[in-house]
Amino acid sequence: MATLRLVWRDGPSANIEDADGPVLDAARAAGLCLPYGCRTGACGTCTGRVLAGSVTHDRPPRALKRRHRDDGYVLTCIATPEGDCTVEVGTEVKRDLLENPFK
């Protein structure tokens, strides 16, 4: 089983020992609140970013474009750590993916 480290941009972090299953499920089992919506990888509300280690999506992450996946973004509702892993979480992470058409 893996050690999952969750970090938020405003400073807090949490370690989840023996994390099993998707990041979102492990966080909820540990009493932590993360944003989520559909729980199927379609909406993108749960977007996080892998900072260390790796994850496997349990099904295709439809809410992420290939370039975002290549940059380490994951959907925590369907992303399972493959070992020790650090994931940046929180609503700010999804905002990174939004493009301003007026730039």
Quick one: how many beta strands?
7
Mean pLDDT: 94
CATH class: Alpha Beta
What is the CATH architecture descriptor? Answer: Roll
Count of DSSP helices? 3
CATH fold description: Ubiquitin-like (UB roll)
| Portion in strands | 25-35%
- Tell me the Rg in angstroms: 13 Å
The run of helices and strands is: EEHEEHEEEH
CATH superfamily: Beta-grasp domain
Largest sheet: 5 strands, mixed
Outline type = globular
Query: Structural class of the helices, strands and pairings?
Result: alpha+beta
Unreliable stretches:
none
The tally of structural domains comes to: 1
- Terminal residue distance: 44 Å
Helix percent reads 10-25%
Task: Trace the largest sheet across and list its strands.
Answer: 2-1-7-3-5
Description:
InterPro entries: 2Fe-2S_ferredoxin-like_sf, 2Fe-2S_ferredoxin-type, 2Fe2S_fd_BS, Beta-grasp_dom_sf. By secondary structure, this protein is of the alpha+beta class. It has a single domain (2-95), classed as Beta-grasp domain (Ubiquitin-like (UB roll), Roll), CATH 3.10.20.30. It is built from 3 helices and 7 strands.
Layout of strands and helices, then pairs:
Elements: E1 2-8, E2 13-19, H1 23-29, E3 47-52, E4 55-57, H2 66-70, E5 73-75, E6 79-81, E7 85-89, H3 91-95
Parallel strand pairs: 1-7
Antiparallel strand pairs: 1-2, 3-5, 3-7, 4-6
Q: How would you sum up this structure in a few lines?
A:
Keywords: 2Fe-2S, Electron transport, Iron, Iron-sulfur, Metal-binding, Transport. This protein has 3 helices and 7 strands. The chain has about 100 residues and is an alpha+beta fold.
